[in-house]
Hints:
By secondary structure, the protein is of the alpha/beta class. Helices cover 45% and strands 15% of the residues.
Amino acid sequence: MTFGARLREAMDNRGPLCVGIDPHPALMDSWGMTDSAVGLERFSMSAVEALAGAAAAVKPQSAFFERHGAKGIAVLEKVIGAARDLGTLVVLDVKRGDIGSTAQAYADAYLDPTSPLAVDAITASPFLGFGSLAPMIETARAHGAGVFVLALTSNPEGPEVQHARTADGRTVAGTVLDSVASLNADEDGFGSFGAVVGATIGETRENLDVNGPLLVPGIGAQGGTADDVRRIFGPAVRNVLASSSREILAAGPDPSVLHATALEAARSFAALADT
């Protein structure tokens, strides 16, 4: 199955929720765990075990593992393996973007199933030119994986680049969205290539229907709500994979409470697609 087909099935069965696994020092402290490789592993593995089955996907934030060096990367490998063993899709939030052989190396690291860091999909930055993502896109196609491309992000600095106009009058974000849609043009169902569009962007005139998934961060702690998602995405809301991290993780460390919190969030976003 392609990533798009796997994700559509998971969203339909579990609800369109992606829970970020962000081992922020403050969160680990609130769980009674130290800001160390040992605390990182306890926190992350506890989260994976509690969230498996409650969400369509989990999204480890690579930076929070990288900050612990080689031991942190080893924990990330365990988290990826555990989530996939438990039948949960893994979207690795790495926001990689480069050119040529370097872009191919990133693709090999995260999208080739022979790699210990192989996941179902990654996030990628197109701001070196959309064509620079070709190695990641082609590697994803070859292995049934996916790529979520940054388009309209939830951070306040994003508009200075993403709202800028190109020579043909379109916005940079608009060209990214059009390029993602073109990757999915030949898909009869749900494409494997998606866009990242924040829940806090306010109004937009961009066409958000890319015939594939829309990874939507900014929900919860960053201020985005289910009503925002409904208003911003309109008919494309059926393709939204809502991403929430700190608001759900704050319900831990009790695994039953964490699981129940994720289930409730998944139900609330599934209801949006039915309206």
